[in-house]
Request: fold
Amino acid sequence: MEFKFTEDNLARIEAARKKYPTALAAVMDTVYIAQEQNGYISNEVMEELANVLGIDKVNVLSVVTFYTMYHTKPMGKYHIQVCTNVSCMLRGAYELWDGVKEKLGLDHMKVSPDSRFSLEEVECMGACGYAPMIAVNEDYYENLNKEKVFEILDSLK
Amino acid sequence: MEKIVLPDIPNLNQIEVYLASGGFEPAKKAFAKTPDEIIDEVKKSGLRGRGGAAFSAGLKWSFMPKTTDKPKYLAINGDESEPGSFKDRQIFEDNPFQLIEGAIITCYAIGAKTAYLYIRGEYHKWVKIMEKAVAEAYDRGFLGGKMKETFGTEFSCELYVHKGAGAYICGEESSLMNSIEGLRGYPRIKPPFPAQRGLWGNPTTINNVETITNVPAIIKNGWEWFSSIGAPKHPGTILFGISGHVNKPGVYELPSGILLTELIYDVAGGVTGNKKIKCVIPGGSSMPPLRGDQLEGVRMDAESLKEAGSAIGTGGVMVMDEDTNLLKVLLRIAHFYHHESCGQCTPCREGTGWMEKTLHRIDEGHGTSQDLDLLINVANNIEGNTICALGDAAAWPVKFMIARFRDEFEKYVRKDISIPVLNKVHSMRSTAVPLADLRK
Ligand SMILES: Cc1cc2nc3c(=O)[nH]c(=O)nc-3n(C[C@H](O)[C@H](O)[C@H](O)COP(=O)(O)O)c2cc1C
Ligand code: SF4
Ligand code: FES
Reply:
């Protein structure tokens, strides 16, 4: 499917471009903008992105495939991230992880058939003192237990 | 106790409050001095980097070339991805303008016209906070072209926020620069050092967020004041992020050199359920773990922790009680470094995989005592043989955890079997397709 940035987003890309001496450096900001608009980064998105910035497509691909927050496939409407690194693990993160997996019937990097949820086991999110934690899309939820996590999941429509 | 980085002033994150509490006066004071005088002041203050290596900030700044036609850069490291570290986000949230002011003074000192503040992508909320604060600073003329009027100086600088996108390795300074340039976060071979060839090949200084946030206070109160706080060889306060099995986990700003036991028992309210401590990692998961019976008298500064057989790192203290299964902890740590290895160096790419595999095998009940020696051996072969310090960061926990808790690890292995170890594991960083393949 053809992909075109919205006018607003083209303006945001232009602003990002001004932060750096090269167009290439704006690629990370631009991938975020594209992901926000399209949900994920498809081949067509990468092509248009390269066009707009005037850079080689291989540079876009190189970045998109390196950083874990860029997705090359559609994720769920609610992307659930559970940290299981040490500080969270010490405070019951694996209980959360197992509970969420079971409740959603999903495994790491899987998407529910209705596209509502996707699940990811993530590395330390910088919330270690408020462990265990999950993130839903861009929002952190901290000081959790299994009950609280289930409440959060239930509230997501 | 006076706090430097996170003062107890309500709403300090609002520019009016920051200004009312003397904000941007230190910058004015700085502009009345020469850049060399600022560098000298920071050098004498004894301020050391808060990002992990505890290197003298003033000394680092003095490496920047004085006579060059090239543009110079400051990169502020807010990648904060070291497990156990969650302190820079508190600065973004509670004291963003002091960070901005620190960036301005540092730019002036090193002659940089542009600074990038690199914030990890997961910190979306804090990226927004900092973008808003930076925009306000521009509006008020504290950044950009209007600085000349505001401060009555010839100097001006720009500050931009760069959002990362999920990669621990980008906290490593040369990888961070590649990431700002729009490349994969692969660490660069050193030398050349960033002060010679950094961002886009130009002289660059990289400092941690907390390091930079200390700068305005040093300019305001003078180096003597700063150097008299805390441990003489590592002065100032440190933001300690304490997590794991304590009653009051969180971020606490305290003078360097505080006793580790005081930090755990008094400040953080002691161990949950009044249990004994089995293990403490004092500076983020890359640092050598200490035994519970090694903690007495240990002070939280670079020199004392070195003497105790660990390191201050990011000041992220992870506390594990007597019931903790250290094999599971070490396996989780090994998994992390394997996942985050960028794969450029063979010892790191293969070694981290090998360590994870071996620990996994022990966890499945198929480990032998030789595996423990093998793990230490693999760790020793990574250490010092790689492009960047992620290799050491992966090796230390394995090496020191097993050596210091050998009795416990012996319990996890079987005495009755002896089989050769599996090898040839490749980086699990599933997104890391070699660039050569992409070009096909
Ligand atoms: C694998 C790795 C990850 C790192 N992550 C961070 C980080 O998240 N934040 C940070 O400030 N420094 C990090 N560092 C240290 C930086 O390379 C650099 O030493 C530091 O930002 C310099 O700032 P400072 O001198 O003010 O401490 C990391 C180093 C390595 C090897
Ligand atoms: S030590 Fe590891 S992370 Fe660092 S450059 Fe080498 S492979 Fe990459
Ligand atoms: S270990 Fe989970 S947020 Fe740090």
User: Anything to note?
Assistant: Strands of chain A lie at 78-83, 110-111, 117-122, 134-136, 139-141. DSSP finds seven helices and five strands in chain A.
